[in-house]
Structures are given as structure tokens and as C-alpha cells.
Hints:
Layout: E1 6-11, H1 16-31, E2 40-45, H2 51-65, H3 72-81, E3 82-86, E4 107-112, H4 119-128, E5 137-140, H5 148-159, E6 167-169, H6 177-187, H7 190-193, E7 201-209, H8 218-243, H9 252-265, H10 274-277, E8 278-284, E9 286-288, E10 291-293, E11 311-316, E12 328-333, E13 340-347, E14 366-372, E15 376-384, E16 396-404, H11 405-408, H12 417-427, H13 436-456, E17 461-464, H14 471-478
Parallel strand pairs: 1-2, 1-4, 2-3, 4-5, 5-6, 7-12, 8-17
Antiparallel strand pairs: 7-13, 8-11, 9-10, 11-12, 13-14, 14-15, 15-16
Helix pairs in contact: 1-2, 1-3, 1-12, 5-13, 8-9, 8-13, 9-13
Bound molecules: 6-O-phosphono-beta-D-glucopyranose.
6-O-phosphono-beta-D-glucopyranose (BG6) binds near residues 172, 210 and 229.
Amino acid sequence: xxxxxxxxxxxxxxxxxxxxxxxxxxxxxxxxxxxxxxxxxxxxxxxxxxxxxxxxxxxxxxxxxxxxxxxxxxxxxxxxxxxxxxxxxxxxxxxxxxxxxxxxxxxxxxxxxxxxxxxxxxxxxxxxxxxxxxxxxxxxxxxxxxxxxxxxxxxxxxxxxxxxxxxxxxxxxxxxxxxxxxxxxxxxxxxxxxxxxxxxxxxxxxxxxxxxxxxxxxxxxxxxxxxxxxxxxxxxxxxxxxxxxxxxxxxxxxxxxxxxxxxxxxxxxxxxxxxxxxxxxxxxxxxxxxxxxxxxxxxxxxxxxxxxxxxxxxxxxxxxxxxxxxxxxxxxxxxxxxxxxxxxxxxxxxxxxxxxxxxxxxxxxxxxxxxxxxxxxxxxxxxxxxxxxxxxxxxxxxxxxxxxxxxxxxxxxxxxxxxxxxxxxxxxxxxxxxxxxxxxxxxxxxxxxxxxxxxxxxxxxxxxxxxxxxxxxxxxxxxxxxxxxxxx
Length: 488
Ligand code: BG6
């Protein structure tokens, strides 16, 4: 990794992602003095705009979406880096203006915060004006495709001009502190490293619940659904990190090779097992956090016939030696009672009961990794209740060993995922970015499920906004005498 100056070219700098996430993250990196002093930031959009107006726009965004109070020193430093270039991204001729803003002697990072449908145009335009060479890095946002075939088309368009070593595909979950901590927990602690398989683990639950609905994005969301929006990327990336074999090093390809093997080992879900393995739901009107919200089909711009799912529960199986017989239950939905993402590892029960009839069903140990919010790690253990009893028997109680990040690291701010990812791109480290074969393998698995749903022609099950999804989601686990972990 190298801490060197670069020209950071942000395509789509006036768009939602840039405004809400990327510019505030650059500001935070500036504040932490993690951007090389000589790095420049070139905002690119198709509107004609004077630099001073762009600067005013960036500042207004930072005030709206960043720190409540702007640090003026930081802002002055950030402002001095800003350039603005007006490019019509579909017009090859218009890219030459970039030559005035970038230095060919330095690394250029092109962040495409634009719709994927124009990734190909941008790559062609960059190529056309001859400012790219093998040192250029190109950063791609999701969604990369709608299915395997369309993702291949996008990947091909980009591959025409850039080598895989130059391509950084974002899955912002990989930049979350607690997702990165999965690697630390698993491989820096022998108690976990040695108990992480079918001998010790009964099953795994991965839940990513959101209280928000589709936030005015009907057009995009209805086309995607929760499967493409959340499972194909974020949930499968978490699953891969939880299930992968130890990589030899933390190098980009060591990690990505291991994640890919997990994705390849996922048992296909198709028409033969779809009803046993998946549940999909769509929210109806209800109350979330005390506020009345409309149903999915009543959202602004809704097509009232839509069968798009806003909730999914899946029983996934990984057909390899480590995970034989250990289901991974995935669950994600919009308009759930609260925003909570967690991984819960259920260990196997004790083989024999020493504690008498009242403790016939000793609960299993659980390792709860709270990804967000209230980040932390918790282990449930059975503990003797202190004190004496007339019968002399032992009274047991379930207790928690709890590591809460907000207490343990009270002085440390948890950075936004994009801060980490932007930093890694500038450093030239691909470990937290998704390789082409991973994306395509994930699509292969997801496509088969989508296809099976389509041919079953069944609508998603309704669930009321503000609940944990359709009742069948409970049934998915209850069939095996299991139940979803209930966080506080
Ligand atoms: C995005 C999805 O990728 O992730 C959104 O498109 C979703 O629909 C978001 O709300 C969730 O991200 P986070 O970081 O808020 O958990």
C-alpha cells in the first residue's frame, strides 16, 4: 500500500451518493489528515458550473450531511483541493477537459458514482482522451447488473479498458468496522478459530433489518427487490466472511479466493427446494417506531400490482467439509421494527445434562456479533447463581459477556464505511473490494432463486410494517426447532 498523492476524480459529484456519503467521507479523511497533502479532488458532472459555485455546493452538502459544525481548518484544506469539470458522460469528445485537471505523472482514481448503465461510456470516454494508463484505478458502485448476464455485460465493458487489478467494486458493508471485525474475531482468537465448524456450531443467523422503507426510490427498488438490493451483495459478503477458510494472508486475493470458494459451495436453491428454503414478504401499512407508514403498494409512484419482495428469509447451506449440516439463515427486510444488523452463531447443546430436570434444556451458547447499531460482541453463557440452596442443588442462569464498542472504545469514533473504502482506494488496496468472479458467482446463486420464484408465480406474503416479517419466516426455523434471535 502506498501513501502517495493522487487525482481523485468523482464522476456524479452532484448525485445523491456523493452528497450524502462520498463528500462527507472525504471531509472526515481530511480532518483525520489521511489524505496526502498533494492529492486533488476533481468533481465531475454534466452541468456547467464555476468552481466557486461547486465549492459552495460542496460546503452546503457537508453542512447538511456531515458534521453538524464544520471545522474551518479542515474545510480550508479540503476546499483547496477542489476542481470542477463539466463532462457530458455520454459524449466521448467532452472528456478532454479532464486533461486540465489531472497530472499524468500521478495516479488517477476515477470514482463512478453514476448509474451503472453509463460505466461503459465513462470508460470509453477516459480511454478516448488518452489520460488513462495502467496506474489508473476505477471504482464502481453497485448494482453491477440485474442478473448474471447483465453484470457480465457491465464487467466486460469496463474490462475492455481496465485490468481487474485496477477495478475496485464497492460493497459498502465491507467497509463497516464491525464487518471487518469478523475477520479479527475469527482469526485473532483461538477460542473461535478452533470452534468454527460443524462439530461445534449448530447454525448461524445473519439478519439485516431496516426500519426505513424504500425512501422515495420506487423505480429503482421495484425493479431490484430486497434480493438484488441486499442479499446478492451485502448478506452474501457477510456470509462469506463468516464461513470462509482462513486466508493465508490479508492480501486482497488471499481473502477473495476464500470468499469465492464459499460462494461456489452454496447449495443451489431452485424450484425443487424453493418453498422449503425461502420466504419472501411485502410490507403493508403499519406503524414503525410509533409512526404510521404506508404499505409498499401505497408508496409514492407505486404500481399497485407489484410482486416485488421487501423481505426475504433464506435457509442457505454450504456444501463443504467445514459446514456440512450447518444451515445459515439469512433474513433482511424493509420496514422492520428497528434497524439492526447482527450475526448470531448458535453453538451446539451440551451432550449430557448434569443439572437435573429443571435444566433439561440447557440453552446453547450464542455468540452475537452486533454489526449495527450498538456495535459489539456478546457471548451468552450459563452461570451458577451465587448462593446456597436447601437442597444443595445448583441454580443456573443465562448470563452475558458483553463487549460494547461504545463503552470499550468510548474515545474512538466509528468511521463511516465509505471513509474506510475511500482510504483503501487511495492506498491502492483491493482487499475490501469485490472481485469480478465473486460478483458473478453471487449472481449465479441469486438468479436461480429469482427464477424459481418467478416460475412459482406466487405473490410475496404480506407482513405489516413494524413487524419482523411474514409468519412463514418463523416457520422456516421452527421446522427445525429453532427460532430467530430476538435482539433487545
Ligand atoms: C444499500 C441499499 O446498498 O444499503 C439500501 O441499496 C439500504 O436499500 C442500504 O438501505 C443499507 O445500508 P446501511 O449501511 O444503512 O445498513
